[in-house]
Write a sequence for this structure.
């Protein structure tokens, strides 16, 4: 049976994570307050930030930036878009005959 949490990102009851995604106090907070769905949204946001900003994950400043962005995204209803970012156009997948 799946564990549910009151997700602070999505503002609803949802399926929780199976285990803390990070070590320490922050990982425990995410485990207790963030749903699987919200975590997947963060992973997509993180990937966009890495790609659009051409971030080097070896750089400690980059990791600190991503940790700060993660906390804003998950707990403060805030997300940063890179300067000049344009979301991809939606594609129409219905076939018209």
């Amino acid at each position: 049976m799946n564990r549910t949490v009151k997700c602070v990102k999505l503002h609803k009851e949802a399926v929780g994570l199976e285990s803390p995604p990070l070590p320490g106090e922050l990982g425990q907070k995410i485990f207790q307050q963030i749903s699987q769905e919200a975590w997947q949204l963060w992973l997509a946001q993180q990937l966009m930030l890495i790609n659009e900003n051409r971030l080097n994950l070896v750089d400690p400043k980059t990791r600190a930036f991503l940790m700060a962005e993660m906390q804003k995204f998950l707990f403060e209803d805030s997300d940063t878009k890179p300067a000049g970012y344009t979301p991809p156009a939606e594609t129409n997948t219905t076939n018209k005959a």
Summary: Helices lie at 24-33, 36-53, 60-75. Strands lie at 4-7, 12-15.
